[in-house]
Amino acid sequence: MGFLFCATFRVPIQEFVVEDLSLLKQALPYIKRYRNKIFVIKFGGEVVCDTKRMDNLAADISLLYELNVRMVIIHGGGPQATELAGRLGIETEKVEGRRITDDRMLEVAKMVFAGKISTDILSALRRNDTPGIGLSGVDGNLIDAVRRPPQTYVDEATGESKQVDFQNVGDIRNVNTDVLRVLLENRFVPVVASLGADQNGRVLNINADTIAAEIAGALPAEKLCLFSNVNGILRDVNDPTSRYSYITVDAVEDLIRKKAISGGMIPKVKAAMRAVRKGVKRVHIMSGLEENALLYEVFTVKGLGTMVLDQQEEAEYLEEQG
């Protein structure tokens, strides 16, 4: 029997061959299915701030690129924006996970999102021979937005309601995908920072999950992949092994009504639901902390995250499993 030598130990190569061939056979139908299809991939600053983690994800994206999957990357950068704001003496204020963006915080967001983070992602893609192009929602009239009006929030602990003005935060009115289509047709990977603008050119901070869902629906994309700090939707938030492998949008709505989903996961699952209802076949919520999570989720039946779909697509997925 042959052996694969590695450092000071050796492992039978046959074990690797059997496992690799099994994974390859499982992946082959998906490789055929997704050739020339569009994926929208969204991740936040927690991925970019770790160079090794970002390089691993860039390598996964590079592999998909070589398999002729067309990709659009959407990114946020909350941790980096909070860090820079703190260094500049700017207080960060959030309501239910949503950042209030005053004029000073908007300047931070522009510097961090469209500047540092976009450049760091493009650098990682370049190291992996994948041609990226940095954009924001302001470029090419990609994201047409309006300033969010004041919102009423109810404190669940006290029952008191209050008005919150998010200031320079935007809600999307329309997505113009022309610039993305030009880049995709010429084999570039657009990297979109989570900013938009109104008709007067006023720049607005927009939630990256929301942008990803709207762009995925407008293209339309075959898949939307949303990275999180947990490995999908959990039956028990204290038990990482209680992950839903897949779930329908109707079931997700039921979980939200029962308050089985809460906190920062709510905007993510709502974005997933919106994307599915806009025509995206499958939306995946997965951990950005797991190595190769993207490839496992795309090319294996069970994946490492939670797939959100409608009932029609659920029937097709169950048929795939035999």
Describe this structure in words.
- This protein has helices at residues 13-34, 45-48, 51-66, 78-87, 103-127, 178-185, 208-218, 249-257, 265-277, 293-299, 311-320; strands at 3-6, 9-12, 38-43, 70-75, 94-95, 98-99, 132-136, 143-147, 151-154, 161-164, 170-175, 189-193, 195-197, 203-205, 223-228, 246-248, 282-287, 306-309.
- It is α/β, with parallel strands linked by helices.
- It has a single domain, classed as Acetylglutamate kinase-like (Carbamate kinase, 3-Layer(aba) Sandwich), CATH 3.40.1160.
- The strands form six sheets. Strands 7-12-4-3-15-17-18-16 form an eight-stranded mixed β-sheet, with helices on both faces. The chain has a two-stranded antiparallel sheet with strand order 1-2.
- α3 packs across α5, α4 packs across α5 and α7 runs parallel beside α9 (265-277).
- The model is unreliable at 1-18 (pLDDT under 50).
Short description:
The chain has 322 residues and is α/β, with parallel strands linked by helices.
Q: How many domains is the backbone divided into?
A: 1
Task: Give Rg in angstroms.
Answer: 20 Å
- Overall geometry: globular
CATH architecture: 3-Layer(aba) Sandwich
Helix proportion of residues, in percent?
Answer: 40-55%
Query: Strand percentage, roughly?
Result: 15-25%
The ordered string of helix (H) and strand (E) elements is EEHEHHEHEEHEEEEEHEEEHEEHHEHEH
| Widest beta sheet: strand line-up | 7-12-4-3-15-17-18-16
Distance between the termini: 35 Å
Which structural class should the secondary elements be placed in?
alpha/beta
Mean pLDDT: 89
Number of strands: 18
Biggest sheet architecture: 8 strands, mixed
How many helical stretches? Answer: 11
CATH top-level class: Alpha Beta
| The named CATH superfamily | Acetylglutamate kinase-like
